[in-house]
């Protein structure tokens, strides 16, 4: 039964919707955590330590954080796998391209695939930069996100990579949230009048929230 559901188009779309919502919740939590940088190094550095002690003494040091990471990685893999398989299925269903693209297709819809690739590459870079410190510019300091963030956004390429990825996130969320609502049966003609502005609003909040950090570093507001 489970295998049949996964093999079906609706099963794959449902997996994309559910995994996408998990990632959306993480994005908002991550964005709000990033904004702690505006309250100074003590605030965001203390938060980095708190993340690793969350759930103690029941959970061991960093266990909760690793549990979140495992769930997030599983969501990313499931989302990407379902997206790829649905794309291949769509290509097989209509091997010849349309002579003209539908005029109503939005920019976000047409760039979902490339947006996903950009985000996948960004996740790898972001982890190597601010989690492991492997490609971090300057001296990486464990549990010192304030200084690490300033180091990254003091480089031109750090800003370009991050802002490009954040814009891709915005378009991805804008289209993906509305698609998820349709897949899960939430969307109707009447509800679309609320869902589309909601998707636009959430995408805008995420984009502005994330971009505000590198902009603050570049302008000297955070230093």
Q: Describe it for me?
A:
- 74% of the residues lie in helices and 0% in strands.
- α2 crosses α8.
- It has 223 residues and is mostly helical.
- The radius of gyration is 19 Å and the shape is globular.
- It starts with a helix and ends with a helix.
Keyword list:
223 residues, mainly alpha, 9 helices, globular
Question: Summarize this, please?
Answer:
The protein is mostly helical and 223 residues long.
Helix content: over 70%
Task: Tell me, rounded to a whole number, the average pLDDT.
Answer: 86
| Major sheet summary line | none
| N to C succession of SSEs | HHHHHHHHH
Poorly predicted regions: none
Structural class, by secondary structure, is mainly alpha
> Care to count the β-strands?
0
Task: Name the overall outline.
Answer: globular
Strand percentage? under 5%
Count of DSSP H/I helices:
9
User: What gyration radius follows from the Cα positions, in whole Å?
Assistant: 19 Å
**Amino- and carboxy-terminal Cα gap:** 56 Å
Would you spell out the secondary-structure blueprint of this structure?
Blueprint: H1 2-7, H2 9-34, H3 41-53, H4 63-93, H5 107-110, H6 112-130, H7 145-152, H8 156-183, H9 189-219
Helix pairs in contact: 2-4, 2-8, 2-9, 6-8, 8-9
């Amino acid at each position: 039964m489970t295998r049949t559901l996964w093999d079906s188009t609706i099963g794959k779309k449902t997996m994309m919707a559910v995994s996408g919502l998990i990632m959306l919740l993480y994005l908002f939590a991550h964005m709000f955590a990033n904004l702690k940088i505006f309250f100074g190094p003590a605030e965001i550095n203390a938060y980095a330590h708190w993340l690793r002690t969350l759930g103690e003494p029941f959970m061991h040091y960093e266990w909760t954080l690793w549990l979140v990471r495992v769930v997030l990685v599983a969501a990313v893999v499931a989302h990407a796998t379902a997206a790829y398989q649905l794309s291949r299925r769509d290509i097989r269903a209509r091997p010849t391209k349309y002579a003209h693209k539908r005029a109503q297709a939005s920019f976000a819809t047409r760039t979902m695939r490339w947006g996903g690739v950009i985000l996948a590459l960004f996740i790898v870079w972001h982890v190597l930069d601010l989690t492991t410190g492997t490609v971090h510019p300057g001296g990486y300091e464990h549990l010192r996100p304030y200084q690490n963030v300033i180091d990254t956004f003091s480089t031109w390429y750090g800003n370009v990579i991050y802002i490009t990825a954040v814009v891709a996130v915005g378009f991805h969320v804008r289209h993906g949230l509305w698609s998820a609502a349709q897949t899960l049966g939430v969307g109707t003609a009447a509800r679309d009048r609320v869902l589309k502005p909601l998707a636009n609003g959430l995408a805008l909040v995420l984009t502005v929230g994330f971009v505000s950090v590198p902009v603050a570093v570049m302008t000297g507001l955070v230093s």
